[in-house]
Write a structure and sequence with these properties.
The protein contains 18 helices and twelve strands. It is an alpha+beta fold. The strands form three sheets. Strands 2-3-4-5-7-6 form a six-stranded antiparallel sheet. Strand 4 and strand 5 form a beta hairpin.
Length: 448
């Protein structure tokens, strides 16, 4: 594959820039178990080292992954290392790295032997083209689905799917033949219940599912989420969520929706965008439920047909949205509703008291000049809203002369009594001006 091709046998974090360490040098040139000659160091990772070896009897190049001696004393790391060999060898799919042997070195270190791959990983393939054409991304994703579908059928969840663990090789005249690597933190359905501490977060932040970010229990649907991230990155050149810190990335996975693919790259098909966004659902219940569902729709999109979609389109979420689950509670919502109800009651009481207050102010302004003009000096009555009319006992349809019209009817007394009973507010009696004293006209009229 040109200058970009490199030899690798698993995720090792890249070859050490300072060259082979002293720990690795002692194995160079040695023959392990009388059949594996150690030729060179391919790279070093956190858990171990990877060597290129030759099977002396078959003259076949292979790769050997050796667990660091200090990690051998940690039962959890040792169990995880052995699980990687067990998981990959039990699946038996052509798109999963083939592990053929397992053993121990003379110093007590553990190793396993696997096929040696010549090619490049997915992150290098993406970087070399900025973003992939949709057709190429579909071919790669279909092969990943086949590999993980076989793993899930065997009860194994990868839990660390990322571009560095997807290796592309040339095989049988097929370009971009996929090999899935590193089942080191895989979850085996029939194995021990837990190999990690409670609440421990395992995985690579950019490719972790929301439930994985929270440290909750995960199942095969966490691999479906990671596949959605890989597809998103292949066709756009960006990961769905990015931040300056690990916690920032995890928070976005849990609470923020990714930018739609066609916003970044307009020519991406609507069908592929829908599939990817469905894989990236926050709640596992709303994603595709199996890799076989994803594979079926990918095949349809590649053939130019309409995808069917997952079987969960009509299933309601089984839990509330995550921001509410960690934020506002039912007590908060209830208190907010009570405060709103009190505000409405205060406004209603104010509307009831406003006509009485205006009438009191009018009467306190002084006696009217003439009893016949008293009605002319009073302001127009303030009519309440129709919804409050039953509360204050006034008919909003009556005008200023409504009281006199009521008194002139034959049943004026009964109607007036009924109107009085409907008024909950007791009004003060209206003060009448005192009549003027009788004047002696003889004093005022000297001609009389």
């Amino acid at each position: 594959m040109g200058d970009s091709t490199r030899t690798i046998a698993g995720p090792i974090g890249g070859v050490s820039a300072s060259g082979p360490s002293r720990v690795a040098e002692w194995l160079l040139g040695q023959t392990i178990d009388q059949r594996y000659r150690v030729d060179s160091l391919l790279g070093e990772g956190g858990m171990g080292l990877v060597y290129r070896v030759t099977h002396t009897r078959l003259n076949k190049p292979l790769a050997m992954k050796v667990l660091r001696q200090e990690n051998t004393r940690d039962p959890e790391v040792l169990a995880r290392f052995r699980r990687e060999a067990e998981s990959a060898s039990n699946i038996g799919n052509q798109h999963i790295i083939d592990i053929s042997d397992f053993g121990e070195l003379t110093d007590g270190s553990t190793y396993f032997v696997m096929e040696c791959l010549d090619g490049l990983d997915l992150i290098e393939a993406i970087d070399s083209v900025d973003r992939m054409p949709e057709e190429r991304a579909l071919r790669i994703a279909i092969q990943i689905c086949r590999a993980l579908g076989a793993a899930h059928d065997a009860g194994i969840t990868h839990r660390d799917l990322k571009p560095e663990n997807i290796f592309l090789i040339h095989r049988d005249d097929v370009e971009d033949f996929v090999k899935v690597l590193d089942f080191g933190i895989a979850k085996v359905g029939h194995g021990p219940n837990r190999l990690t501490r409670a609440g421990e977060v395992l995985g690579t932040p950019h490719y972790m599912s929301p439930e994985q970010c929270e440290g909750e229990g995960v199942d095969h649907r966490t691999d479906i989420y990671a596949l959605g991230v890989l597809l998103y990155e292949m066709v756009t050149g960006h990961v769905p969520h990015d931040a300056d810190t690990m916690m920032g990335i995890l928070t976005k996975h849990m609470y923020e929706e990714p930018i739609p693919l066609r916003v970044r790259v307009p020519h991406i098909s609507k069908e592929l965008e829908t599939l990817v966004m469905r894989c990236l659902e926050k709640q596992p219940e709303r994603r595709y439920q199996t890799m076989h569902e994803v594979l079926s729709d990918l095949d349809l999109i590649e053939a130019g047909l309409q995808p069917v979609g997952p079987d969960t389109w009509t299933i309601p979420p089984t839990r509330p949205p995550r921001p509410w689950r960690r934020g506002a509670s039912s007590v908060y919502v209830g208190g907010l509703a009570l405060a709103l109800l009190m505000l409405v009651a205060t406004i209603a009481v104010g509307a009831l008291r406003k006509p009485e207050a205006m009438e009191t102010q009018t009467l306190q302004a002084g006696p009217a000049p003439d009893a016949t003009d008293l009605r002319a000096t009073q302001p127009a009555p303030l009519l309440p809203p129709p919804m409050l009319s039953p509360l204050i006992g006034e008919d909003a349809s009556r005008g200023p002369d409504g009281a006199q019209a009521l008194a002139s009817t034959p049943d004026a007394g009964a109607a007036q009594a009924k109107q009085t009973r409907r008024k909950p507010v007791r009004r003060k009696p209206r003060r009448r001006p005192k009549p003027a004293p009788e004047r002696d006209r003889s004093i005022l009229d000297p001609w009389n």
